[in-house]
């Protein structure tokens, strides 16, 4: 009788283990929002369980809102995972200068911590991943300046996300990932304004990314945190300069239009 009971509860215990393992993989950033999981057969073999046991674990994670299954289309990490900072602020970020500067302030705090802990904790595998992310940044910045703002923004944000991964701090990582879409859209806007404002921008940004990469690679935690802050400060400085110039231009244009309107009025106007 005891053996029969044990046989009945064993699949549930296995499902518990699979639930915990899949939760850990998502929490550690191995699977990201919207990503499709490997096929059932592959996962079952990986975990050494039957497909029914795997399906039970997936159903339980789907009930928690962590996974979603699509008929004939596989199983996905919920696309809403970590999205609370993203979509509601999308329009605000693109329309409000104040909100865009608030985001930069938040990044100043958040990314400084990511860089500091990444420099302290990076493993050899982490440094390889960081090198690959920096290589994508370098390829973009070495290419002739054109209309590749989206690609430049993706490489830039991708580099900072890898730094968050290398920090080995799950809260920092998911904070950064929750901002991914907003950061990418905001970076596209920032790049356009900065390139138009200063010819030096691309070279300066590349050198800032290179210095940050090298500090983390070499384990210089305090220097990495300082360089991260200096990078954000430079972005804010150039954007403020661009915005102030735009305000002066708009003011001058209004004056010109007002004078033109007055000049068009005759003595009987």
From TrEMBL:
Domain HTH gntR-type: 12-80
GO molecular function: DNA binding; DNA-binding transcription factor activity
Job of this protein: Transcriptional repressor for the pyruvate dehydrogenase complex genes aceEF and lpd.
Organism ancestry: Bacteria, Pseudomonadati, Pseudomonadota, Gammaproteobacteria, Oceanospirillales
Keywords: DNA-binding, Repressor, Transcription, Transcription regulation
UniProt name for this protein: Pyruvate dehydrogenase complex repressor
Keyword Repressor: yes
SMART domains in alphabetical order: FCD, HTH_GNTR
Matching CDD domains: WHTH_GntR
């Amino acid at each position: 009788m005891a053996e029969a009971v044990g046989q009945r509860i064993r699949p549930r215990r296995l499902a518990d283990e699979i639930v915990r393992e899949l939760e850990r993989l998502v929490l550690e950033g191995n699977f990201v929002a919207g990503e499709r999981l490997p096929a059932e057969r592959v996962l079952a073999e990986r975990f050494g369980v039957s497909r029914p046991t795997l399906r039970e674990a997936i159903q339980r994670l789907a009930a928690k809102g962590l996974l979603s299954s699509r008929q004939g289309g596989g199983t996905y990490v919920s696309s809403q995972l970590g999205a609370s900072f993203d979509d509601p602020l999308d329009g605000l970020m693109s329309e409000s200068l104040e909100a865009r500067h608030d985001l930069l302030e938040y990044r100043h705090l958040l990314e400084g911590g990511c860089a500091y802990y990444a420099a302290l904790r990076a493993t050899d595998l982490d440094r390889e991943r960081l090198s690959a992310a920096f290589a994508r940044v370098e390829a973009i910045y070495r290419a002739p300046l054109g209309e590749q703002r989206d690609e430049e923004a993706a490489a830039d944000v991708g580099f900072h996300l890898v730094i968050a991964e290398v920090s080995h701090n799950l809260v920092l990582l998911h904070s950064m990932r929750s901002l991914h879409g907003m950061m990418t859209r905001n970076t596209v806007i920032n790049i356009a304004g900065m390139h138009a404002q200063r010819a030096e921008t691309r070279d300066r940004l590349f050198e800032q990314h290179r210095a940050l990469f090298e500090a983390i690679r070499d384990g210089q935690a305090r220097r990495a945190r300082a360089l991260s802050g200096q990078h954000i400060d430079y972005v804010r400085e150039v954007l403020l300069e661009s915005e102030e110039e735009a305000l002066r231009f708009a003011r001058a244009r209004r004056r010109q239009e007002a004078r033109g309107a007055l000049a068009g009025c005759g003595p009987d106007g």
